[in-house]
Amino acid sequence: MVPSRLHHRTGSLADERHVVRKDFAHTGLTVIRLESGQPVELETGATELAVLPLSAQRVELSAGGERIRLDGRATVFARVSDFAYVGAHTALELTSETGGEVALPSAPCEEELPPRYGPAEDVAVEVRGGGQATRQITNFMSPEAWSHASKLMCVEVYTPDGNWSSYPPHRHDDSPECPVNNEEIYYFRIGDAGTVDYSEVGFGMHRTYTPDGEIDENVAVHDGDVFHIPRGYHGPCIAAPGYDMYYLNVLAGPSGERSMAFCDDPDHHWIRETWTDDDVDPRCPMTTATGKR
Fold first, then answer.
1. First-residue to last-residue Cα distance in the chain
2. pTM value > 0.85
3. For 50, phi and psi rounded to 5 degrees?
4. What is the 8-class DSSP label of residue 273?
5. What is the tens place of the pLDDT at every residue in 80-114?
6. Which of 27, 38, 44, 180 to pair with 260, CA 20 to 30 A apart?
7. What pLDDT does residue 1 have?
């Protein structure tokens, strides 16, 4: 079997300091493990980034002369977290009382914006789809919900066990029919259904493909995997029964427009019309700023 050049398994992008550390053409993702009470110093360089606690609480950050405290969360399944935005060419220091993992999704940019805090209570929680395609979107840095960014866009997707998300398959690349060209990263966390715990054995499925067949990836994803989408249709993501699925979407592109507009695979667009007759899965939303439902 030929190894995937887009699918990065847990640990394959790690080093002594980082759980994940990878920069692509227009997007990047760092996941850093903080030790309790031990500060970590960073420079954003020519990139803007978000500071998003994944499994860390009481996170203190100092950036651009400002101090911001994030409540964070025990795991991504425990609650919707608060977050912070940090602009380009900024010195950043992070500390967590509890220790744990923090995601730093990023995008190269030229504009320099000041740091800003995003309260968990202000994060828009959206339920999309219907039936077995019901999923939760937390729009913490979507263009509509967060205007204080130059290029970077981020959302979180929660898929209950047995459900499908990123469906129907869609793309936002340089194809003539697409309104915007975005590169994308998916960072997966898999949990034991009905709990807030991560699963060492759980899994899901992910598909990315292009009409010309140059990309045709159908992979099993596990807790901590990264999938890079330079172009093409992506979806579905399928949560195996017994295991909830989370993924952090990081998007940015070469244009000056922050937009997550997309175009469906025309072969499967029709499925959207059926959702008007389907009941929404009552398990969604799976979690909110006040905790797991």
1. 41
2. yes
3. -110, 150
4. H
5. 999 999 999 999 999 999 999 999 999 999 999 99
6. 44
7. 45
pLDDT of residue 260: 96
Q: How many Å separate Cα 198 from the centre of its chain?
A: 16
Q: How far apart are CA 261 and CA 238, in angstroms?
A: 22
| DSSP H helix total and E strand total for the chain | 1, 25
> Hey, how many other C-beta atoms are within 10 angstroms of the C-beta on 6?
17
Q: Which residues are registered as beta bridge partners of 171?
A: 263
Sheet strand arrangement including 66-72:
40-43, 91-96, 57-63, 66-72
Residues 6+ apart with CB under 8 A from 163: 132, 133, 134, 135, 238, 239, 281
* Number of C-beta neighbours around residue 110 at 10 A: 10
The full DSSP string for 187-213 is EEEEEETTSS-B-SS-EEEEEEE-TTS
Structure tokens given for 62? 């100092």
Residues found in the chain: 293
Before 108, cis peptide (omega within 30)? no
Taking residue 113's Cβ as centre, other Cβ atoms within 10 Å add up to 16
